[in-house]
Amino acid sequence: MNESRKDTVAFWLFVSPWVCGFALFSGEPLIASGLLSFTNYSLFAPPSFAGLDNYSALLNDALLAKSLKATLAYTLLAVPFHLVSTLALALLLHSAVVGQALLRTLYYLPSLVSGIAVALLWSSLMDPHSGFIHTFLSSVLGLKGPLLLQNPKSVIPSIVVMDLTSLGSTTLIFLAALQVLPAELFHAAKIDGAGRLKTLFKITLPLLSPVLLFNAVMDVISSLQVFTPAYIVTKGGPEWSSYFYVYYLFRAAFFQFDMGYASAMAWILLLLTFASICLIVALTRPFVYYENKPAASNKGGRRHVV
Amino acid sequence: MLFEANRTARFVRIGRSALRYSFLYAALGFICFPLLWMLSASLKSTAEIYRYPMRLLPAKPQWNNYVHIFEMAPLGRFLLNSFWYAGVTALATVAASSLAAYAFARLPARGSQVLMVLTLATLLLPGHATMIPQYLLFNELQWINSYLPLVIPAFAGSAYYILLIRQFYTGIPRELEDAVKIDGGGRLQIYTRIMLPLSVPPLVTSLLLEFIGRWNDLFSPLLYLNDERLYPVALGLTSFSSQYGATPWPHVMAASTIALLPLLLLFFLTQRYFLRDNPVVVFQKRSNSF
User: Which residues form the ABC transmembrane type-1 domain (chain B) (predicted)?
Assistant: First the structure.
């Protein structure tokens, strides 16, 4: 056996756990859920072909519309909040010399707390009877009534605020990306007399754009799948205003045992995710720096978003 | 004149830096406040939680809360479950990922480029899209209410770690492989004697990230485990909040603190691989997204 032949055999042996595992546990289920979405299936009887019934039912489902609205509202609020605040923190942290290592660690620590504990913690802080935030708002600002999690208008922003504890991990990602940017460009900008704002918008942000895009995409993917706050804190309420898509999917599948309908929902989620990614990539195309760069400063973005 | 200008410049610089640090510390307050509140509330009595006006610190720390939580629910059991579950799955995922990463970094084969693109594409798949047929598959195999559906898929590895580790392998000089080749060693020996020993930082980072992710995961355990005694600690926290009518907040917070401690310990032990100016962190999987 010659060397290149050996390489090929070894390649497939080494990737076989990944390829087989993915095909079995993700690929096959993905296709199966596509097929199931055209059936009526309740777990207790074998699936029966239902044509497009599930999809036409989706169109007339008022609850689905509400859950889509809640999920999109959350995503549209959470992703910009998350990206802007973490980027701002990373930029500040990058230029802070004293105590940077300590701040970095302290920012990161709260993101070790599990989503469940975070959700429980915030629901305690936002509790209308004993919660710190409620007490603060009513005693200091004089705000009364069903605020925060009990009000359909404020429940989504309140859930976005819960994300505060996990800001640290994304901040560190941006900080790491900032620290490997080529220093000579910044020297050159300084010599040319560029001010801080100009340097930020003409050099730092363009160089960072692949990492920003990558994080925006991953953020959108995970935000569209938001589940824990609804499951732990709000149970989808009040008035279905936080009835997130995956929470509905979970209930349709494991409370109503409507596997066919839930599979159709899963495929809609898949399409929605891909549509959002395409939209982001198309909208940001003029602003993202796609030129070839040395490997060290090109960690995240462009290769990932084909 | 010159002296004056220098002084103004200095004032501006000091002002700027004061502003920067006050922002950074204000942000630190917001980010860390919930964590500190958790610690404080875990030491309060139930009556004190509901007292008005509230205090930031407990009047008299109730250390007993930390004893009671082990009686209210099988918390020790939960922790044990989490340790072996997160440990085994982290090892399995990173082992499989590092094998695939080696193949992508060093073994030229037809189709490897296409497979790489497909691997990247899997990052974009929303995991919940495959939830139902996956459940049906494991139901068919009679694996429900056991750890098999949670552990076995981990042996496939994950695209995140394949990319992260591959990046590192690609940077290892090829000349190092020559020594193994002269000894007549094959590709497996190159992998075990050169690649693995030189790649401790990305391997430890991956292990840690996956361990944290599994330790904190809610969704899969919720789906597959029915028996409370099988719960990992993250899911076990829900049995504190829903068991009784009114939520016993001090106990929930104490249990949350206990659930966090092993991760803190692990984090400080591995920090030198993990939190340096390490570009590796750029790839970091958001372990804590909801």
Answer: 79-270
Tens-place pLDDT, residues B161-202: 999 899 889 888 888 888 888 888 888 889 988 899 988 888
pLDDT of residue A177: 86
Whether the model pTM is above 0.90 = no
Dmax over CA atoms of chain B, in Å, equals 86
How is domain A51-304 classified at the CATH fold level? MetI-like fold (1.10.3720)
Task: With beta carbons less than 8 A apart as the criterion, state whether A207 and A289 touch.
Answer: yes
Q: How far apart are the first and last CA of chain A?
A: 36
Give the residue from B13, B31, B115 with the most A CB atoms within 10 Å of its CB, the best one to mutate: B31
Q: Bridge partners of A40?
A: A48
Q: In angstroms, rounded to a whole number, what is the distance separating the alpha carbons of residues B109 and A170?
A: 36
Residue A244 has a pLDDT of 95
Cα A70 → chain centroid: 15
Stretch 146-205 of chain B: residues touching chain A, C-beta under 8 Å:
152-153, 155-157, 162, 167, 170-171, 186-188, 191
Pairwise CB contact (< 8 Å): B218 & A130? no
CA contacts within 13 A on the Cβ side of B235: 22
